[in-house]
Amino acid sequence: MPVTYTIIAICVVVWLCQLVVPGFNRDVILTTWSWQSQPWRLITSAFAHSVSGFMHIAGNMLMLWLLGRAIEPAIRRRDYVLSYLLSALGGSALFILFAALSGTHSAVVGASAAVFGLFGLLVGLYKLAGIRNTGIWVLLGINLVFDFIVPGIAWQGHLGGFLIGLGAGFLIAHARRRGRTTTPTLWLLLVPIVAALGASLALTG
Q1: Alpha-carbon distance 60 to 105, whole Å?
Q2: Whole-number Å distance between alpha carbons of 203 and 171
Q3: Is the per-residue pLDDT at 143 higher than 80?
Q4: What is the DSSP string of the chain?
């Protein structure tokens, strides 16, 4: 699983830089007040994690490894990478949109939106393939419970990542049925992401 292990390695390196490099953590997290002038935070935050403990990154990397085992051997690597990154962006966009709707200011960090995107990707693939997999629903359910019982979790980001990942799963499965290349159609998922960010700008501008 070269892609999965590469993503894990990047997350670990970024986390270590957050711990030891002055100012690094401040520059990579996503905040509702700085993303417009520093849009790279929409994606860098998905590779960064909380510096207050080890459990945040450990939990996300474990779920990434478990989901990567099922996904990476089953689809093209470029589709896997693109789906992951789009899910991360989708989570960031919905987090920003909800913050704009509520008029709140906060920050978010972590790979969990992209991980929830992988959940959605699997659900989409399994649904169109007619495969029933109880295990994926159990894992998803456990993670959703944590969203509502653990304070400080950005459930909006998880929802955004899941929806984009779900769309990616359907697009990949549909393209396979028709014998077409998937990657170009995945770029269509940028439409709701850009729409959410545009709505955020309109609400705050």
Answers
A1: 24
A2: 31
A3: no
A4: -HHHHHHHHHHHHHHHHHHHSTTHHHHHSEETTTTTT-TTHHHHGGG---SS-SHHHHHHHHHHHHHHHHHTTTS-HHHHHHHHHHHHHHHHHHHHHHHHHHT---EE--SHHHHHHHHHHHHHHHHHHT---HHHHHHHHHHHHHHHHSTT--HHHHHHHHHHHHHHHHHHHHHHHHT--SHHHHGGGHHHHHHHHHHHHHHH-
Indicate the pLDDT class of residue 135, thresholds 50, 70 and 90. low
Helices 112-129, 77-102: inter-axial angle, 10-degree rounding: 120
Structure tokens at 171: 């697009």
Closest CA to 193 of 102, 108, 115, 82: 82
For the entire predicted model, the pTM comes to 0.88
Give the Cα separation of 84 and 119 in Å (integer): 11
Q: Quote the radius of gyration of the chain (alpha carbons, Å).
A: 16
Cβ atoms of residues 115 and 59 within 8 Å = no
Q: Which tokens sit at 131? A: 């495969």
